[in-house]
Model the fold of this input.
Amino acid sequence: MKEYIRNFDISMGFLSYYLKNYKYRIPLGGIGEVDYERIINLVDGHVKDKLQICEIGSWTGTSSVLFAIYARATKGKVFCVDNFKGNSNLLASAKKHDIKAILEKHLKKFKVEEYVEVLKMDSSEASLKFKSNTLDVLFIDGEHSCPGVKKDIELYWPKLKVGGIMIGHDYFHSTVKEAILEIFPNHKHERYLKGKTESSIWYIEKRR
Done:
């Protein structure tokens, strides 16, 4: 519980900093306080020494900083996979701004950059860098089309250790939900609410 509170306070500090210093006019993405709380609640149950985390879709780092805090605490590593080209409502921002540089600025602000390796490439290319059964935590928040989500899950699920956890964002996007249920037809989404706000975080633990 102490670890949960500490990481929640630090990550909320980052979110507060991010919003107050928001000068780039770039879409934030949908990760907010209730999603942070849900992610922390899930990752806390899988903490171990030298935690290995891979994040598919980092953008400007609203979730990257949180995962890097865990990597720092466990002397582990976060791999941030993003081609930084954007898609949908992010395309214009990707052309106008150096998104990777903004991500790196945020990592440095919270003194976690040494625990992060940024892989500027498509998720398919990055998947070749990971051996099977090497990741403890996998976070899926890249391309949101059904084929895109399915591709990321299918490529990275074998990289996850037995006992590891795959966490994702935007469960309520119809294409994301469709992809999850096509691969895991028995998946039952576990709702998580704070007041009237519901988190869009989904997860699946690797049992075998």
About this structure: Strands lie at 52-56, 77-82, 116-120, 135-140, 160-168, 193-194, 197-198, 202-205. Residues 53 and 78 are 5 Å apart (CA to CA). The longest helix spans residues 2-20. The two ends are 28 Å apart (CA to CA).
